[in-house]
């Protein structure tokens, strides 16, 4: 806190609170693994590539080699998100990589952060906002890079993604000038 005050940062942060959950057990959309479904939960709209008629959702496919499957919001999440947890169930497909991209625009052309997680089935992966990054009013894209070459669908079960925000414990910063945003930083995610 002293370092924050010495640098002229006016906000001190307290406990994290859950502000939004993308629930992969609410079914709807498409059963096609290669189709992007429009999903709206609460006031937030999403695009999910996978079978969203299953409970939980299945992200995957067949006859694919190093193919990206995505889950991303098309409506801004207004809070300053500090942490995102992504819970997965069974996985019977090869997950080559799993990452989170945070952007200031819905087209993801202005990337604020890129974080890489280590995927593990039946586990929760935690992505934490890097120091010095602002995740207020942002768009979030989860990218699963998958491989399964036989002709039958295989998948990762997407159970949920939970978004947490830190609660402010002091007065807002009197200087409304936004801080410059770092670009293109990759940070390893923490796996509990």
Pattern of helices and strands = HEEEEEEEEEEEE
First-last Cα distance: 26 Å
Separate helix tally: 1
What helical percentage do the residues reach? under 10%
The 3D shape can be described as globular
How many β-strand runs?
Answer: 12
Mean pLDDT: 86
Molecular structure report:
By secondary structure, the chain is mostly beta strands. Helices cover 3% and strands 56% of the residues. It has 1 helix and 12 strands. It has one helix at 2-6; strands at residues 13-23, 36-41, 44-49, 57-61, 64-73, 77-91, 94-103, 111-117, 123-128, 136-148, 154-168, 186-188. Strands 1, 2, 3, 4, 5, 6, 7, 8, 9, 10, 11 and 12 form a 12-stranded mixed beta sheet that branches. The longest helix is centred in the N-terminal third of the chain and has 5 residues, at 2-6. The radius of gyration is 18 Å and the shape is globular.
In short:
The chain is an all-beta fold and 192 residues long.
State the main characteristics.
single chain; mainly beta; twelve-stranded mixed sheet; 192 residues; 1 helix; globular
